[in-house]
Every structure is written in C-alpha cells, then in structure tokens.
Amino acid sequence: MAANWEKVENNQGVLTVEVDASQVDAALDQAFKKVVQKVQVPGFRKGKVPRKMFEARFGVESLYQDALDILLPTAYGQAVQEAGIDPVDRPEVDVAQMEQGKNLIFKATVTVKPEVKLGDYKNLSIEDKDFSVTEESLDAELKRMQERHAELVAVEEGAAQIGDLAVIDFEGFQDGEAFEGGKAEDYSLELGSGTFIAGFEEQVIGLNVGEEKDITVTFPEEYHSPNLAGKEAVFKVKLNSLKRKNLPALDDEFAKDVSEFDTLEELKADTKKKLEEKTEQEKDQYVREQLVLKAAENAEIDLPAVMVEHELDQMVSEFGQRLQYQGMTLELYYQFSGMDESQLRDQLRADATSRVRTSLTLEAIGKAENIEATEEDVNEELNKLAGVYGRPADELRKIFSAQDGMAALYRDVQTRKTVDFLVAESKVSA
C-alpha cells in the first residue's frame, strides 16, 4: 500500500491511497462469500451459486461496494499512520479506481488537527483576585448551612410563596388545542427558580393547595417551535401540594445538631477555617485556569469548525445529563426556556471554542517542553482515584483498559503536568 498526503488549504488536505490488487481480489472474495448467502438463483440453494455464474448473472461490479466496505477502514487507518497526520473528522472519500485485478485508488479529503504557533507561555502574569474570607462570605456560608438543614414542612393552609416547593399538574393549550410537550403530572417546581417560561411561576404564587388556575403566558419570539413562537398560551394548572422550608435558628443548639461543636462561636470558627481552605483551592484553580487561558490567547491557531462542533456535541450531552440529575429532560428545558438545540449550541459556542483552543495549546506546550505522563505518574493517579472511589488501583486499571480509557488517562495526567509547568514558570504563585 502507498499513501501520499497533500495539504490543500488551512487544515484540509487530500490523502491519496493505493491498495495492491491482491488485497482488492481478496476483499472481492470475502464480499462474494457474504453476498452469495442472500442470492437466489433457480437450481441452486442459497450460498451455493458458483462464483463464475454469479458474476455472469450479476456482474463483478455488484461486489465492489461490499469489498470497499472491507478494504477502506483498514487502508485508511494505515494510510493516516503512514502519512503522519491527525484527522479530526470523518473523511470524504472518492474512489478513483476500483476494478478486479487492479490496484484500488481512492482519495480522502481530510480535516486535520491544526498547527499551533505558540506565543509567550512562560513568565506570564494574571489579574489579581481577592480570595480572602470576609464576614459577609462567612454569614452566607452559615445561611447555606441553615438551608441544608432546613425542614421541608407541608403547607396545609396559606398560599404559595417564593421559595416554596410546589407540586403541580399542568397542561398547555394554544388556541384551545393541547400542544406536544406541554403536559406533566406531579411536577416539582421551586417557585422563584426561573425554570419555566417568564410569568409562569409568578402566577402560581398565591395559589392554595387543591386550587386550579388558568395561567396565561406568551412564548418568546425566538421560541424554537414556530407554532408557539411569540404566541399566547394557556396552562391549566392544579397545585397538588406545597412544602416550605423551616429554617432552624442560628444558635448553640443548631451548632450541636449539625456539628461536633457545643457553641455557635466554635462552629463559626471551624466554618471560617474550612472556607479559608476552600478559597485556597479556588485560588489555585483560578491561577491555573487563567494561565492556561493566557497561553491560549498568545497562541496562533486556525481552529477547524468541525472541532468546535464536536466539542459542542459533548457539551450538549453533558448539559443533558446534568438536567437528568435534576429530574428534567432536554426536551422540557427547550420547552420552558424558549430555546431549541441550535440556540443552546450558540450559547455554548464561545466556551466550546475556548476549550478546544486551550486543549490544543496545552498539547503543543507539552510537546515543546517534552512533558510526558510516565507509568509512575499514571500509577500515582490510579492510587488517588482508588482512594476516591474506594476500589483497588489494579481493578480501576482493568476497568480503564477494558473501556479503552488508559490513553485518555495518560492524556489527562500529561495535561495536568503541563499546567503544573505553566504555574512553575509564571510570575504568580498558586
């Protein structure tokens, strides 16, 4: 097999591949054995039609597509390795020659990982940020602690308020007709969360348990469903139940209930210490993130659009998973946020672009500085993960290996070591 790579423009090029005729004939043999099992010819059982009779009746050309399906994946993979390129998308393949007894010739138009021209990445400085623990931040943390230990109490009498957890049935109608995706039963909605279309939650406030109400809202003009965009809709809503947070008092009894301390002052002191430890970690993370962003800003990269699109695919998938943990689906999110997937992708595009840029920059710095993840580094990482997940390191290695995850683990460790290098070479301390 022979492969020739010719860069055309930017990050695209043409990979011309020539596969030996003997491999073509072998693939045609395989294709025939597969196809003949499905062919019916009078006088012959399935799978027993002679090759010459098959070709006389159907033509050898009828085997070409199956033979190509056999040949192309392996030939393309070998050609990519031989040419030393790093594709970032599926190739567009054009078969120039496919004939029995002759070499197969095909051309693959390929988008490859871009060249990174590194700018300054040593002795970088970043904007200072205050990470000190203030009285306000301490009070806010104690307030969150109150919220976490609040008791949800069923409200038997009284109207729904902001902050209440309302369990509702609802169904949406437009021009008197129910619309798809606008119905749910026993849906838990925190009033004031801004989860639903603007104006919906505000109209639930004031309802009593068991009460029903028609709630009128107007969908945004840019709403993804043309049938609803900019139009008025009516939701028939019933409040099934209502729960309200009962915050405990911040006193010594609270400290005894939620901690090993006897007094509120001791709890405050411990909370402040933990906040200081947390903010140190946040400062470390801030420094690392800012240095990576700075190095990426200083680099010259012609980003292929397809790499950003792939990153967006991943980000939308991650967002959908987070919604599932919250008891919501992407479909419901689109329904009540007034967005569709294309609008969500547009919203995430800047972050996706930044993620691709920083990833490519770190990879280039790692190569420039010969930073590698050693077996010792990976073993250390597996031991850390073993402590987190409570499973033996050897067992985790087997899991990673079974799922083809070891290469990703090596990359993660190499990336962390590269960021460690940036911090060590910067004008700031993490």
Automatic annotation (TrEMBL):
It is found in: Cytoplasm. Its EC number is 5.2.1.8. It holds the Pfam family Trigger_N. Keywords: Cell cycle, Cell division, Chaperone, Cytoplasm, Isomerase, Rotamase. One of its GO terms (molecular function) is peptidyl-prolyl cis-trans isomerase activity. Residues 163-243 form the PPIase FKBP-type domain. It catalyses: [protein]-peptidylproline (omega=180) = [protein]-peptidylproline (omega=0). PANTHER family: TRIGGER FACTOR CHAPERONE AND PEPTIDYL-PROLYL CIS/TRANS ISOMERASE, TRIGGER FACTOR-LIKE PROTEIN TIG, CHLOROPLASTIC. Consists of 3 domains; the N-terminus binds the ribosome, the middle domain has PPIase activity, while the C-terminus has intrinsic chaperone activity on its own. Involved in protein export. Acts as a chaperone by maintaining the newly synthesized protein in an open conformation. Functions as a peptidyl-prolyl cis-trans isomerase. Belongs to the FKBP-type PPIase family. Tig subfamily. This is Trigger factor. It comes from Brevibacillus choshinensis. The lineage of its organism: Bacteria, Bacillati, Bacillota, Bacilli, Bacillales.
